[in-house]
């Protein structure tokens, strides 16, 4: 299956909201069109998507995996309710979203989520690879994140890429008061880290195939 990795655009926001709410159903406050749009204009933030290209809009509409929000938007006057940007939704089917902030020499991952139907297909790992490559090009030295104590699967993925548990944020998640594990890498620019990273990327490509990278997602 062919996928494209690229920067998130305004047209992707309706689908990004679907994915976020599907992946984090109890999250509060819930993301909105406005909050996503603000993030896309935040100079410290970088957001990417993994997209499954569609031949035309009908291909997206006929997809058995299309979300509830996409169907709902077509029952109303989208431009009147949400504005021009919301009306011109993406013709690609977005299967994963991820974002991070650059703060001095640190890249902090703020979100990483895939649609339920596309889990265990290498999508989440490919987004993590992309984030870490972008972070290095933006001169970050380490990558950090928080993850639920109960999310052992995500922790295992992060540990695979050199993240280490360095602390706990008590009652970090407001929906149920669950603690968050703080995880961080060693220097991502070191020779040893980059050598291991290249091996992991090659292994991912051999297993899942090439995720084509859009020119718009490349950092100069």
According to CATH, the homologous superfamily is: Gcn5-related N-acetyltransferase (GNAT)
Provide the low-confidence segments as ranges.
Answer: 56-88
| Number of domains as seen in the coordinates | 1
Assembly context of the chains: single chain
Which class best fits the helix and strand makeup?
alpha+beta
Architecture, according to CATH? 3-Layer(aba) Sandwich
Termini gap: 28 Å
| Strand order, largest beta sheet | 6-7-5-4-3-2-1-8
Description:
With 220 residues, the protein is of the alpha+beta class. It is 37% helix and 25% strand. The protein has one domain: Gcn5-related N-acetyltransferase (GNAT) (Aminopeptidase), CATH 3.40.630.30. It has an eight-stranded mixed sheet with strand order 6-7-5-4-3-2-1-8. The longest helix has 18 residues.
Write the layout of secondary structure elements.
Elements: E1 3-7, H1 13-23, H2 33-40, E2 45-52, H3 57-61, H4 68-73, H5 78-82, H6 84-87, E3 93-103, E4 106-114, H7 123-137, E5 142-148, H8 152-160, E6 164-169, E7 180-184, H9 191-208, E8 211-213
Parallel strand pairs: 1-8, 4-5
Antiparallel strand pairs: 1-2, 2-3, 3-4, 5-7, 6-7
Question: Short description, anyone?
Answer:
With 220 residues, the protein is of the alpha+beta class. The chain has helices at 13-23, 33-40, 57-61, 68-73, 78-82, 84-87, 123-137, 152-160, 191-208; strands at 3-7, 45-52, 93-103, 106-114, 142-148, 164-169, 180-184, 211-213.
């Amino acid at each position: 299956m062919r996928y494209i990795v690229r920067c998130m655009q305004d047209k992707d926001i309706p689908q990004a909201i679907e994915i976020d709410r599907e992946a984090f159903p109890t999250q509060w406050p819930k993301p909105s069109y406005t909050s996503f749009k603000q993030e896309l204009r935040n100079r410290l933030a970088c957001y990417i998507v993994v997209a499954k290209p569609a031949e035309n809009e009908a291909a997206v509409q006929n997809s058995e995996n299309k979300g509830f929000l996409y169907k709902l938007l077509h029952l109303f006057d989208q431009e009147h309710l949400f504005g021009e940007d919301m009306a011109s939704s993406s013709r690609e089917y977005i299967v994963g979203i991820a974002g991070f902030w650059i703060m001095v020499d640190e890249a902090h991952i703020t979100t990483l989520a895939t649609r339920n139907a596309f889990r265990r297909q290498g999508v989440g790992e490919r987004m993590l690879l992309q984030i870490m490559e972008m972070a290095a090009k933006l001169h970050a030295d380490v990558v950090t994140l928080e993850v639920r104590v109960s999310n052992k699967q995500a922790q295992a993925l992060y540990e695979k890429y050199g993240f280490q548990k360095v602390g706990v944020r008590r009652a970090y998640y407001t929906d149920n008061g669950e603690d968050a594990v703080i995880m961080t890498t060693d220097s991502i620019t070191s020779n040893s880290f980059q050598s291991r990273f290249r091996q992991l990327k090659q292994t991912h490509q051999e297993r899942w195939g090439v995720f084509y990278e859009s020119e718009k997602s490349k950092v100069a």
